[in-house]
Amino acid sequence: MPCLRTTVVKSLRIAIEPDPETVAPESNLAVAAPAIDRQLILGGFVHDSVESTISYVDGDPDAVAEILRESTGVETYEITRSTGGCYLYQQQGLTESALDLFEAFFRESIVVLTPYELRADGSIRMTVVGDGAKVQAVIEEFPDEVTVEIVRVGDSVGGPASELSARQREAVSVAWDCGYYEVPRETGIERVAAELDCAISTASDLIRRAESRLVANALDVRR
Q1: 163 — phi, psi (to 5°)?
Q2: Would you give the DSSP letter of residue 1?
Q3: Distance between CA 164 and CA 148 in Å, rounded?
Q4: Distance between CA 167 and CA 170 in Å, rounded?
């Protein structure tokens, strides 16, 4: 029987800021044009230093097409227009620095969850899952010109709601059902407390803590 090794799996939300001088326009469309807000990488792979990706671009499809037409690194692309943006299939050759960044995270010991986000400020936001020690080791190996910030650390990968405690989820669910989140509000915290069979101060604390976690996730900020 094979020996099974127990590891501590962690979920890390990280912000990567590469050296702007090494990032080609086609590698982050949100930086290349003011008419583009962000780019979400939905999936892809790398073969022989060529990256193939499917992404959603939040912004002007014409601006996307102009950038890609003028790029010498893009081998092929196809744009499908959508409300507020477009879907993009793209193949591009990776620079040495971009390939190093890709290989740092796409390895056996780490899983990168999609989508990951390319922002207009030049940063890359992604969630990685794996052995906590190995993920930390990868981050520490990055060269000095690449800044890596750990935004959040969690023990689950089930989305923002999975970071709530069972009691916090119950409180938010009850508040929703009672009309606490309707506009205008249909009930107060007193009703929520009664449904939870707890003190008003306890119900208020549960709601505030849950809301704090959910808002931090929505804004993608350190909590």
Answers
A1: -85, -10
A2: -
A3: 26
A4: 5
> Can you say whether the dihedral through the CA atoms of 81, 62, 71, 142 is positive or negative?
negative
pTM of the model: 0.71
Q: Rounded to whole angstroms, how far apart are CA atoms 90 and 75?
A: 8
Task: Name residue 131's beta-bridge partners.
Answer: 9
Q: How far apart are CA 71 and CA 141, in angstroms?
A: 31
Distances (CA, A) of 221 to 205, 209, 212: 21, 15, 11
pLDDT along the chain (223 residues), means of 10: 61 83 79 91 89 94 93 92 94 80 72 88 87 78 79 68 82 94 92 94 94 80 64
Look at the alpha carbons of 209, 162, 12, 124 in this order and tell me if their dihedral is positive or negative: negative
Q: What is the pLDDT of residue 6?
A: 57
> What 3-state DSSP class applies to 185?
coil
